[in-house]
Design a protein that fits this description.
This protein is mainly alpha-helical and 271 residues long. It has ten helices and no strands.
């Protein structure tokens, strides 16, 4: 077994245990540093960072080319954003109940993905790769945070959820925080598209060509824009806003992890 795998498996185990701890601690007010969820996330991130570094050294490039690499790097980035939100926004740490299952879904997919290294295209030898990738990961992480916070509105509608999440802010306060996360996600989504267009001009001599990935990326941008507009102008309820955010994230998820790997276009995902 490679060093990368020896580090990755316990990292994913830490994420899984963090998901269990998040449910146990949902109704507590533990310090960010004393919380088992936070400690497990931190341990998982440390091991996962070392795993990605080992992979990078072994194959000679960053985790940008294959489904395995993109899944691994996105599990890492989503876990990192989740850990930062957990530490900084104490009132809504229970959002981990929504966020961590998504991360664990990707982790399960990662376990069955082919770890063989892929071809590193000549167009990837540019700083724009890192800019485009970083912006995309921040965008997806912030959007997942928005979904996590807004999802609490639905979770506590059940009797059990109402008991465990009784100490949370009001639905309106959760909705406002989710809106802010989504607004920041929209900014990074827009910057990601701009960086991608600049990269496309450098690589292929055109900014935009409406290939499948570009088309779906634009649809994802429109979906998030429409969600923000509905919240700001139409004053939809917190529950409706939560559903719209979930739909926008589902479309982004498909764009990130589906379209690039079924499209015959030369444009493949690197985020």
């Amino acid at each position: 077994m490679s060093l990368e795998s020896l580090l990755l498996l316990p990292a994913l185990g830490c994420y899984a245990m963090a998901g269990v701890a998040a449910w146990v601690e949902a109704d507590r007010r533990a310090s960010a540093f004393a919380s088992a969820t936070a400690l497990l996330l931190a341990g998982g991130l440390a091991l996962h960072t070392a795993s990605l570094a080992a992979r990078w050294q072994a194959v000679g490039h960053g985790p940008f080319t294959t489904m395995y690499e993109i899944l691994s790097s996105n599990v890492w980035s989503l876990a990192l954003v989740s850990a930062l939100v957990w530490a900084r926004v104490r009132e809504v740490r229970a959002a981990a109940l929504v966020v961590l299952p998504v991360i664990l879904l990707l982790a399960a997919w990662l376990l069955v993905a082919d770890p063989a290294p892929g071809h590193f295209p000549p167009t990837y030898f540019t700083a724009l790769l890192y800019v485009h990738t970083l912006l995309g990961k921040i965008y997806l992480g912030l959007l997942l945070a928005a979904v996590g916070v807004s999802g609490l509105v639905w979770l506590r509608r059940s009797p059990r959820g109402a008991r465990r999440l009784a100490g949370l802010p009001s639905d309106e306060a959760l909705d406002e925080l989710a809106y802010r996360f989504a607004a920041f996600a929209f900014v990074f989504d827009s910057l990601m598209l701009i960086a991608g267009a600049v990269w496309a001009q450098d690589a292929w001599g055109r900014y935009w060509a409406w290939d499948p990935l570009e088309t779906w990326a634009f649809l994802s941008w429109l979906a998030l824009a429409a969600t923000l507009h509905a919240r700001a102008s139409l004053r939809v309820s917190p529950r409706v806003h939560a559903l719209l955010l979930a739909g926008a994230f589902a479309l982004a998820f498909l764009t990130f992890f589906g379209v690039p790997f079924v499209s015959t276009s030369p444009h493949k995902g690197a985020v």
